[in-house]
Specification:
The chain is an alpha+beta fold. It has a single domain, classed as Endonuclease Chain A (Endonuclease, Chain A). The chain contains 2 helices and 5 strands, in the order E-E-E-H-E-H-E.
Length: 77
C-alpha cells in the first residue's frame, strides 16, 4: 500500500521483530503501545507517552537511523 503512494519502505532483517511505534520531530517524542485505532481509543488498554526533550528525541532518532543503516529497500518481487 505504501509503495502505491511512492512512500519509501525499508526492511530491517537483523532483529527478529522491530516493533517500534515512535514519532520524533526533534523536540517532541511520542511513543507507546497505542495503535491509533478506534479499538485502542475505546476498548483496549494501551498507552502513549509524550516527551518534550531534544535529548530524548535525539536518542530515538539516532536509534532509528542506526536501524535504517542496517535495513535495505523493500522489494515486493
Amino acid at each position: 500500500m505504501l509503495q502505491a503512494y511512492v512512500v519509501p519502505v525499508w526492511i530491517d532483517y537483523r532483529p527478529a521483530i522491530a516493533h517500534n511505534k515512535v514519532i520524533i520531530d526533534g523536540h517532541l517524542t511520542i511513543g507507546g503501545s497505542y495503535n491509533y485505532t478506534a479499538n485502542a481509543a475505546k476498548r483496549n488498554a494501551e498507552n502513549v507517552t509524550f516527551t518534550e526533550s531534544p535529548n530524548v528525541s535525539k536518542a530515538f532518532l539516532d536509534n532509528w537511523n542506526s536501524r535504517l543503516e542496517a535495513a535495505r529497500p523493500f522489494d515486493r518481487q
